[in-house]
Amino acid sequence: MRLFFDNGGGVCYICSVDKYSSNDNDATRATKITEGLAEVRKFDEPTILLFPDAVNIKTGGAVDWDKIAGIQQAALKQCGDLGDRFAVLDVPDDPTKLVEEEADLFRSKIGMNNLKYGAAYSPYVKTIYDKTFRLRDIMKNLFDSTGTALALKSLFKDSDKDASGTPIKTKLDTFSTVYASNDLMNSRLAVYTGAPATDTFSSSKLDASYQAIVNAFNGAANDAARLVQLKAAFEFVYYLYAQFEGFVVNHATPTNKINTATPATPTAALPIITRVIGSTVLRAAVEDFLASNLKTSLQTFRNLDNEAYRIATPDISNTAASMAVVDFTLFTDAKWVPAAAVDSGLINGATLLDKGTQALNALTQIFRAAKSGLDSVVSIGLALESATEDALTPDLPIYNSILSVLNTSINTLPPSGAVAGVYASVDRDRGVWKAPGNVSINSVSDVSELIDDDTQEGLNVDPNAGKSINAIRAFYGKGILVWGVRTLAGNDNEWRYISVRRFFSFVEESCKKSTSWCVFEPNDANTWARIRGQIDNFLNNQWRQGALAGAKPEQAYYINCGLGITMTSQDILEGRLIVEIGMAAVRPAEFVILRFSHKLQQ
Questions:
Q1: Structural domain count, the chain
Q2: What Pfam families does the record point to (predicted)?
């Protein structure tokens, strides 16, 4: 997936977000993030690279500084090679180290190459958004300090009971049975609906399968061909209803005429669902739904089936001798078995085509009721799980403690994502030339570690390697601010500031793209004059916006292009058109110094 958004100077690209799943181990994630970076290189649009997920890579439970640094170095190299993008890096949050120690280790791992094309930020930020955790999430993902799976009920004693005297362990077992039944029911339904087992189900797959039969009926050349498709439609709808009973009744797994893999051939075999609901409470709830909803639809279906058999030649009935394996004996519970079929006069018409069309239309209404039933069955399971959880959690004080720790941990995030948003906001409101600093971060309540002036001085100015790290700081009455605007090349007089580097990249890319028209144009004075005029107009606009220093345009920039100035005769013979641009980019007032002195009374 490529995530683009306009940030004034170009486009932001967040890579690797679809490269791995939550089941991948850290080594696999590192490999896939690197592969994601390689894919980003193929695109011309990105101007910012960031990968906040990379700093979570661990080996043996400890932060893997080497793997993280390898990814960050690859990003800096790409930025340096292409010159049109900038890397926003995170300093990993290592719980065993202080901020200063993390900074020193980051500097030693990042190397010395392409530092002007990236900026680093520390510490992490705490967002205000609580994650929605369910009890099932904790029960399925609870581990002890050694990484061994831990059952939640093992944290309770047999004597722990609720106010009514029911053992907590028993209630936890009941809840576990409910959500396990839901998972199994959902996974079986996913075969038909096409949705992942964890999603609310759509019926798109069933729609496609049934519509294929309707299309075949409408496109049939004669009555015999139409009857074949009408019979297929009856089978399809009948077996869809048979799935409902399968949730609560053990079938002998007869052949299912629904084929969602190849809708055009609905006779491929899939087993009818055999009882999957282990929870007796959930089973009773589904049975009540079947009794109140399924029976009415099945009765309508049986009546329609009976009349279709009466009017059609050859047979299209599901209950005829030729289809004895497909009959209503599948439905074994009196709660929802329909009564004997009656001739309801559902189908009328002068010709077999008229009658077949009416039968198909009536059958479609029954199919839609079945689709609606699928959603209802899912809702029944989710509602029961939620009610069971609500009744259980007040008796689990440890549950609320776990939630508190999880929300604190999960919502503490690397700052690069928020910083990219700051870049985009400043670019849009002011321009790429404005340093992205002294800007508050929205939806953030705190930082993982407080940084004072002394600590920041060590981050901002590195006396050894000159690698600057920008601080995210909390200020009283101001909020959480980005309080640093330096690239990693903190001692470089030319490329010390993020805004200068990004502004030059912005101008370079803009001029390169806007002058592409001159390729294959005559390499003469007319072309050179047109190029100078075009670039001059662009830079003049930037100067007027405040991006360039100087009281007059000629003090802010210059443009050279011509024979004997930027090109030799040999350059022209070899097809080179060389333009030289110089700019006096504005630099941020990083240090505001106020001088005070006593003035004695005169």
A1: 3
A2: Phage_sheath_1C (PF17482)
Give how far the C-alpha of residue 209 lies from the chain's centroid of Cα atoms, to the nearest Å.
Answer: 29
- Residue span of the structural domain in which 381 resides: 171-393
CA 172 vs. chain centroid, Å, equals 32
Task: Extract the tokens encoding 172.
Answer: 């936890």
Q: What is the dihedral of CA 38, 39, 44, 47, to 10 degrees?
A: -70
Kindly state whether residue 379 falls inside one of the protein's structural domains. Answer: yes
Residue 143 lies in a domain: no
* DSSP per-residue letters across 555-574: HHEEEE-SBTTTB-HHHHHT
CB atoms within 10 A of CB 554: 8
Considering the domain boundaries, does residue 102 fall inside one? yes
10-residue mean pLDDT profile of the chain (602 residues): values are 36 42 60 84 87 84 87 93 92 87 90 92 85 79 75 84 84 88 83 69 78 91 85 82 78 69 63 82 85 79 75 49 42 66 72 84 88 81 88 80 73 88 91 90 87 87 85 89 90 89 90 88 92 92 90 90 91 91 83 69 74
Q: Clarify whether residues 186 and 333 are in a common domain.
A: yes
Is 425 found in the same domain as 379? Answer: no
Tokens for 512? 């390169």
Whether residues 200 and 274 share a domain: the answer is yes
Q: By the 8 A CB rule, do 500 and 548 touch? A: no
Which two three-digit tokens encode residue 561?
């292009």
**Residue 393 has which token pair?**
């959690």
**Cα–Cα dist 56/92, whole Å:** 8
Global pTM value: 0.63
- Please give the Cα distance from 600 to 602 (Å, whole number): 6
pLDDT at 590 (0 to 100): 58
Q: Residue 324 falls within a domain, yes or no?
A: yes
Q: Which of 342, 364, 393 is the last residue of a domain?
A: 393
- Give the CA count within 13 Å in the CB-facing half-sphere of 174: 19
Q: Mark whether 435 and 383 lie in a shared domain.
A: no
